[in-house]
Amino acid sequence: MPELPEVETIRRELAPRVVGQTVVSVRLLWPQAVATPDPERFVQEMRGRRIEALCRRGKFLIFQLSGGRSLAIHLRMTGQLHLLPATEALHPHTRAVIYLDNNRALHFRDQRKFGRLYLVEDLETVVGSLGPEPLEASWQPEDLWQSLQGRRAPIKSVLLDQRVVAGLGNIYADEALFVAGLHPLRPANTLTQEEVRRLHTAIRKVLTEAITHGGTTIRTYRRPGGTTGRYQRHRRVYGRENHPCPRCGTPIQRTRVGGRSAHFCPRCQPENTSSAASPARR
DNA sequence: ACCACAACCTGGCCGC
DNA sequence: TGCGGCCAGGTTGTGG
Question: What is the pTM of this model?
Answer without folding.
Answer: 0.94
